[in-house]
Amino acid sequence: MKLLSCYVSSFGRLKDFKYDFNAGLNVFNYENGWGKTTFATFIKAMFYGLSGDRTRSVKDNERTKFKPFNSTGLFGGYLDFEKDNKQFRIERFFGNKETEDTCKLIDLTTGKEYVNNVNYGNKLFGIDEEGFLSTTYFSQKDLESKSNASLTAKFNEITEIEDFANFENVLFNVEEQAKIYKYRGNKGLIADVNEEIFALNEKIKQCENASENIKNFNKEIEVLETETNVIKEEIDKISKLQKEVSLKEEYMFKKEQCSKIKEKIALLNEKLNSAKELLNGQEVCVDEVDAYLGCVKDLIEVQSKIKSTTESITLLEKTIENANKTLPKKPILPSFILGGATLIFALLSFVWIFSLIFSGVFAIFFATYLIYSNASNKNVNKNNSNTSITESINKVKEDLNSLLKIESKYLEKINSFISKFNLPKTDYYSFFNNLKNVINLKESVCKDIKENEKLLLELNFVENNNLENLSLQEGFSYQQKIKEKMVELQNKSSKISYVKNALERAESTELELAEYIVKKNQLLEKLNEYNERYRILNLTLQFLNFANETLKTKYREPLLLNFNKYVNKIINKEDIKATVDIDFKVTALQNGITKDVNYYSKGLLNSFEICKRFALIEVLFNKEKPFIVLDDPFTNLDEEKIKEALNVLKELSKEYQIIYFICHDSRALI
After folding, report:
1. Among 592, 625, 517, residue whose Cα is nearest residue 207
2. pLDDT tops 80 at residue 135
C-alpha cells in the first residue's frame, strides 16, 4: 500500500497545499513551524479522523488544534492511495464537532463513491487508530508501542489463528460476568446477598426478642395508665378549688361594678336635686320656654316702635316751632293731592298697629309740606297750618299710649314667669337659654339614673360571706398546679403512645419471624448458587488466560527475532541484550541483571521503541507493505544511533514507502 498524492484545502497552518508522493523515500526537511506535524496528522486524519474531542486541552484535542485560525467553515482535503493494485481517494472535511464531519471513499478506477464510512483505516490496515499509532505512524509525542486487541487480532491473522477478536470478546465478557458476582470491595451479587442475609439475621434476632419485649411493654403500659388516672383525679380536685376561686373573682367583679354604679347614681341624684332647686319645683318643658322667648321677641319689637314714635313726636313739635321762622319754596305737587294722600295713610294707620311709625313719619312729612305749601299760598291762614300739625301730634301720641299698654302686658307676663325660678336674673335671652339648659340637664340626668338602675338590677348582686372570706391568692396557686399536672399528664400520654407503638411493632415483628426464616433460607440457596457460578467463571478465566498466553506466544518468536535484528543494527551494544514479551513490554539483560528499559536514558529508550516498531511492521504486514510516517522520531538519539537508524531507514525505503519529517540536517539522509 502506498500514497500517491494529496491536496490540503485547509488544515492547521496548511492551506491550498498539494503534494505527489514518491514510491520510496519522501523527505520533508523544513524549519520549525513549517507544518510538518500538521501534515503528518493530516495523513492520519484522512484514514482515522480527528481524536481528542472529549478533552478541552488544545494539546490533546486535534479538532481544536488543527482548525484554521479565524475560520468557521469546514477544513480538510483528500488523499489518493493505492492498495491491491487499485487506486482510491479518501476525502474528509471536518466541522466544529464530529456530527458536522463529512467523509467518502472514491474508487478512482470505477468512480464509485462510498459515503460516510469513517472506519476506512481499520479496513485498509486491519488495525484501529491505536494500533496504527503504535506501528507505522512514528510520532514525536509518543513512540511507545502498546498491545491492544486489534494488534493481537492482526498477529493471529498472520499466524492463521481464526476469530481471535471473538476470543477477546469472550474473555472480556467472562471477566465482566465474574465482576457481576464479585467485584472489588463490597460490590457484586454475592456481597449484596451476604448483606441481605446479615440484615435478615438482625431481624430474626429482633423477632426472637419480640415476645419478651411484648410482656415488658404491656406491664409498662399498665403502670403508665394507673399513673395517668391518679394525675387526672388530682386535676379534678384542683379544678374544683379553682372553680370556687373563679366564682370569687366573678363575685368581686360584680361587687365592684355594683359599687361604681351606685356611686354614679348618687352623683346623678346630686345633679338632679341641683336642677330641681334651680327650677324651684316647677314642672316646665322646653316648648313652654320657647313660647316665652317668642314673647320676648315681640316685646323688643314693641319697644322699638315706642322709641320710633317718641322720636316722631319730638320732631313734629320742633317743626311747629320752626315753621314760622322760614318760608319754604313752592311745593312741587298740588295741595289737594297731598291732602288726599295724608287722609288715606291716616286711615291705614288705625288699621294695624305696625303702621303707627309709618303714619307718624308721614304726618311729619305732610305737616312740613303744608307749612311750605301754605307759606307759598297767600290765601291760606298760617294758624290753620299749626292747628293741623297739632292734631297730627295728638294722634301719634294716642298710638304711643297704645304701644305702652302692650309693652306693659308683655313685661308683666314675662316677669311673672321668671319669678317662679331660682335662676340668676340677667337679660331675658340669657335667662331663658339657661332655663332650657337646666330643663335638658334634668331630663338627661333622669334618663341616666334609670339606665344605671337597670344595670344594677341586671347585675343581680347578692352579698355572700363565704366568698368574701375566700383568698384569691390560692387561685394563682391552683392555676400553677393545674398547669404542672397537665404537663405531667401530657408526658405520660406521650410515653403511653410511644410504648404502644413499640408494642405494635413488636407484635408485628413477632408475626414476621417465620417469613424472615423462609427468606433467609432462600437467600442461602441463592448465595450457594452465586458462589458456584463465580467459581466456574474464575476457572473459565484461568483457562481462557492460559489459552490467550499460549496463542500470543506463537507470534512472540517472529517479533523477538525481528526486534533483536534491529537492536543489533541501531543500538549495537554487546553488553545489553533486549527482549520483548507477548504484551510488547521491553526488558534488557545487562551484566546478568534484567532491567526495565525505563531505567535507561531517553535516547536509549526511544531506540528500543523504534526497533520494536520496525519489528512490528515486518511481522504484521507480510502481505502488502504499508507506508510509514516518521515525524522526526530520532531527536533523542545520539550521533552514532542516528546514523544507524538512517541506514535502517534507507534499507526499509526499498520495500516500504516512507514519509520522513525532520527539521535538522543532522538527521537527514545523505
Report:
1. 517
2. yes
